[in-house]
């Protein structure tokens, strides 16, 4: 069992990010057994859940003439456009049925504001609108955070970078993550995490 100051943050292990889902990550379901086991090692366990309204601005379908995986400039900067995914209340937004959810003390839902996407578990994509997770972790005395889940190069990486910026010791267990790899994003985000002092382990 890890110290009570260590938190496991399980990012977006939802049906839409697993094979058969709307924004499937290759082998997204292969990490679930390991994540389930890790939950027994941590006192503090948090799950995140991508949780979009149907009119969400990150969906290509909400922009005439735009296709998934194209980029659009939003008020807060460039935003990749995605297929409709993780729509609130749908089966695709549910956690994968094999993921243990009982050990988690907190579920952070993110991406619920139509006008702004939220990759990170800490901040939306403007990098300033908070999800409340930092306050929760600080209130529980957490100083170290370990990330697992989907997708390595988007929600996991943004979360880990924010954690490092906020002063947490941040670790990503790459073997318990899978990535989308869009336009070299795996290499780019891995390099950014390493440069920010995020520990990248298997
Ligand atoms: C994610 C793209 C869009 C993720 C969420 O969980 O990495 N990626 N929404
Ligand atoms: Zn999303």
Automatic annotation (TrEMBL):
Belongs to the isochorismatase family. InterPro entries: Isochorismatase-like_dom, Isochorismatase-like_sf, Isochorismatase_Nicotinamidase. It comes from Paragemmobacter amnigenus. PANTHER family: LD05707P, PYRAZINAMIDASE/NICOTINAMIDASE. Pathway: Cofactor biosynthesis; nicotinate biosynthesis; nicotinate from nicotinamide: step 1/1. Residues 7-197 form the Isochorismatase-like domain. This is nicotinamidase. Signal peptide: none annotated. The gene is pncA.
């Amino acid at each position: 069992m890890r110290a009570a100051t260590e938190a496991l943050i399980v990012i977006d292990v939802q049906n839409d990010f697993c094979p058969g889902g709307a924004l499937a990550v290759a082998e997204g379901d292969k990490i679930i057994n390991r994540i389930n086991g890790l939950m027994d090692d941590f006192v503090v366990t948090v799950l995140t859940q991508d949780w979009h309204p149907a009119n969400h601005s990150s969906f290509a379908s909400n922009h005439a003439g735009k296709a998934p995986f194209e980029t659009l400039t939003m008020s807060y900067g460039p935003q990749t456009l995605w297929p409709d995914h993780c729509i609130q209340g749908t089966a695709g937004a549910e956690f994968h049925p094999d993921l243990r959810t009982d050990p988690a003390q907190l579920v952070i839902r993110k991406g619920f504001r139509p006008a702004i996407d939220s990759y990170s578990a800490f901040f939306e994509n403007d990098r300033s609108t908070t999800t409340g997770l930092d306050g929760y972790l600080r209130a529980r005395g957490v100083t170290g955070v370990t990330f697992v889940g989907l997708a390595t190069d988007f929600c996991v990486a943004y979360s880990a970078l924010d954690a490092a910026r906020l002063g947490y010791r941040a670790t990503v267990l790459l073997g318990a993550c899978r990535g989308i790899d869009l336009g070299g994003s795996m290499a780019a985000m891995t390099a950014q995490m390493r440069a920010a002092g995020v520990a990248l382990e298997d």
